[in-house]
Amino acid sequence: MDLDLLAQSESVFALSNGHVGWRGNLDEGEPHGLPGSYLNGVHELHPLPYAEAGYGYPESGQTVIDVTNGKVIRLLVDDEPFDLRYGRLVSHERTLDLRRGVLERTCEWTSPAGSTVRVRSTRLVSLTQRAVAAVAYEVEPVDSRIRVVVQSELVANESLPGPDGDPRAARVLKSPLEPEEDFAEGHRLRLVHRTRRSGLRVAVAADHVVDGPERTTTGCESNVDVARLTVTSVLEPGQRLRVEKLVAHGWSGARSRPAMSDQVEAALAAAAHSGWQGLLDEQRACLDDFWDSADVEVDGDEEIQQAVRFALFHVLQAGARAERRAIPAKGLTGSGYDGHAFWDTEVFVLPLLICTVPEAAAEALRWRQTTLPVARERATQLGLRGAAFPWRTIEGSEGSAYWPAGTAAFHVNAGIADAVVRYVQATGDERFERDTGVELLVETARLWRSLGHHDDRGVFHIDGVTGPDEYSAVADDNTYTNLMARANLLAAADACKRHPDAAAALGVDEEESAGWRDAAEAVNVPYNDELGVHEQHAGFTRYQRWDFTRTRAGQYPLMLHFPYFDLYRKQVVKQADLVLAMHTCAAFFEEVFDEEQIARNFAYYEPLTVRDSSLSACVQAVLAARTGHLDLAHAYTAEAALMDLADLEHNTRDGLHIASLAGAWTALVAGFGGMRWDDGSLRFAPRLPPRLRRLAFTLRFLGRRLRVEVTADRATYTLRSGAPLTVRHHGAELTVREGAPVERPLPVPRPRPAPEQPPHRSPHPR
What we know:
Elements lengths: L5 H7 L2 E2 L3 E3 L14 E3 L3 E5 L12 E5 L8 E5 L2 E2 L6 E10 L4 E9 L5 E10 L6 E10 L4 E10 L21 E9 L2 E8 L5 E11 L5 E6 L3 E10 L5 E12 L4 H38 L1 E4 L2 H18 L24 H13 L1 H13 L1 H10 L29 H17 L2 H22 L1 E2 L5 E2 L17 H20 L1 H6 L4 H12 L5 E2 L4 E2 L9 E2 L18 H5 L1 E2 L6 H8 L9 H11 L10 H11 L3 H12 L16 H15 L10 E2 L9 E8 L2 E8 L2 E8 L3 E5 L2 E5 L5 E4 L21
Parallel strand pairs: 24-25, 26-30
Antiparallel strand pairs: 1-2, 2-3, 4-5, 6-7, 6-12, 8-9, 9-10, 10-11, 11-18, 12-17, 13-14, 14-15, 15-18, 16-17, 19-27, 20-21, 22-23, 27-28, 28-29, 29-32, 30-31
């Protein structure tokens, strides 16, 4: 086992349900790369220092903390601690079972004294009982009698490694949990702590089932930061000791210590009622339903096939039981980005969840609604109307200390509105639109109307903002932002017309709604007539181009080797920006982006885009496929899918890139599948690269389950359940009914010159 890869493997093998997250640390706790047990929303506050203070700067930041660790099970064999760094490791294998939702480990180890044991463990974080995680741990001798001691623990305030200088890593807070209660009795353990500054109370409890030979004994103890059950036994060859550990978690900013203790005890009782096998059966049934709706089949590239299923599993884990909490950029797999949620959630993650687990997407948007009071306060502080949602946050307030590439990126508002519209279009959930969607659409529309202005010719401008490309900050009329704002304004006006009572309750009148439509119709879309391309923002194409010839391969990402000042005034793109606009907004505004215009824009921006963000490759894959560059799309799809499995950005140790994982699905389904539903109906324009023989995927849409299968020369549409559904195939309308699949041929894409990439930044060909 390569211990240098331990931190990376801990992220890859992480288990979560969106509420509880356990990194894939070894059972015995050591050695480790980054200990990690997380509860969604549990954080600590810390001051944000500024060299120069400024009005409107956030005063404190939020950092996810490592809560009480319930997965630790230590083993001593004839008084020797089981530790992979000592003795001889005969074999060691860990398997993340995507069908069963468990992490399995099997190893054989010989102690320094010569005793050999076989250890098996199975770990799960329940998708059906959101407070519960569990471990089954077995040890048996291989060839001789041994004495074993198993110590099952709850551990708080574990030591964490220090920062490594990467701004994407987390701030390290030492001992953030203050003890309030420790308990140990029989096979039951419990610890209750409270964070010092944020005032959040955390309770974790464990119960055990012990199965071993006669004279197996147990004892327990606790102190402020450790509660421990000790199991002692003597094992003859053929005998085994098995410990099943159920762990319950809870937290609150309002509930009392006794109430929290009662809460986790109740969760333990429910888990015990199911039992270990019951939890396994529930997990498998939940995942069977998920894979029935979400699986993507890829023939011709086994690496992408494995990677996209890995991606789907982890995106499910990130959002399945988040339930009115954020979906962080790293999910609950690590502490990267301080555990914050960004615009990634709505723009990259929710489209996948909407089509596969729509109720999880709805809960993520309801979380945004719960943060509206803070977002309204932030807008008022900035002199704006409506709501200004934060660039990065855990609990709803702005946590970004860097204005240009943080708070100025107001497009997060439009991303939230876009996700609302997509969810309603894909589900027909009128109740959600009335109770949640209207309020989110109204308050985001109000922000755009107050942030922008009409010039003396009546053109509507949104100035001084940062778009998705963080190498072009505080610019005027960012095209992505303007088009997304336009869609937001129109969607708000339409929703208020459909739900006049909800609109009236928010104080929306006909004049305000008409003002939104006027602004939307007059939005400026920067265009360079001489070049025949849209500008990423006003004036972008007149900037000096970045000197790529003097940029070495080792100087990427640029933000770690060059000053932002230089990046901001050059034509260099961190991540697809205008290209993202063509993916996200094209169906809304086909008069802006026809197919020829899309091809010209893509060819212009491709040589400028360095992909210093994990969010870029999947978007470039979609547009490469749409413009007929299928081999390039294949390469970008692989990059998005393998972002963590291949550790392409060298920071998987801090947690997985959930948006890039979701982007792997987008690259396949929206890229090679050509799927779009921006206008409220499903449209497909499938085409495959030469190496892929077949692509198949299933979508949930308006109560139906639609399967799409694409081969080199044809596409087959099969309605697996639901009423007949009308879709478009390369522009032609067709209706699909249960039991009557529809086949259509694929047109040959128009050949175009292959676009270039910056030196050292071409994706690896497949």
